[in-house]
Specification:
The protein has 158 residues and is mostly beta strands. The protein has one domain (24-157). It is built from 2 helices and 10 strands; from the N terminus they run αββββββαββββ. The strands form 2 sheets. Strands 1, 3, 6, 7 and 9 form a 5-stranded antiparallel β-sheet that branches. The protein has a 5-stranded antiparallel β-sheet with strand order 5-4-8-2-10, with no helix packed on it. The longest helix is centred in the first third of the chain and has 5 residues, at 15-19. The relative contact order is 0.34.
């Protein structure tokens, strides 16, 4: 017997999916501008399979420096998850969840009350895009809180 998201019964519907239906999972990806070059390009941060419900943010570990821009999204909409920001706007311990990182309260975010939720369907990977000039230094941890919407729904760091 397997429970689905709405609590109904569907036989042979991936037993592992039923074990923690409705439970958020956590995955952490990282981009380090020194180790990973910081060149203007798109970089896969998370590999997605199936369909998932997602809340995501970046937590700056080392102040980002350089003249470039950065955004988080998917192929075809590179700013779908986090709008484009100027690299210099992100300082150590600051939360990046929109075009204007939180300067007034670095280190504090109302994740489930204020962060947007997204449905990522059909295994579309999550990409981090650096635009314009390169970014020379900095380190961002990306935290994805997600739950599967399909039996094969999964997110792993790239």
């Amino acid at each position: 017997m397997a429970q689905t998201l709405n609590g109904s019964y569907k036989p042979n519907y991936a037993d592992s999916y039923a074990v923690d239906v409705g439970t958020y999972r956590h995955a952490t990806g990282n981009y380090n501008f020194t180790d990973d070059t910081g060149a203007a390009a798109a970089y896969t941060i998370f590999t997605v399979t199936g369909d998932v419900l997602l809340s995501i943010f970046g937590l700056c570990q080392v102040t980002v420096t350089g003249a470039g821009t950065m955004e988080l999204g998917i192929v075809g909409n590179t700013a779908a998850l986090i709008a484009q920001s100027t690299a210099l706007d992100l300082i150590q311990y600051e939360i990046w969840e929109d075009a204007t990182p939180t300067v007034a309260n670095p280190g504090l975010i109302d994740l489930f009350g204020g962060a947007r939720q997204f449905v990522v369907a059909a295994g579309i990977d999550i990409i981090f895009t650096i635009g314009g000039a390169g970014i020379t230094a900095g380190d961002i941890d990306f935290h994805a809180f997600w739950m599967p919407l399909s039996a094969d729904g999964n997110i792993v760091p790239a």
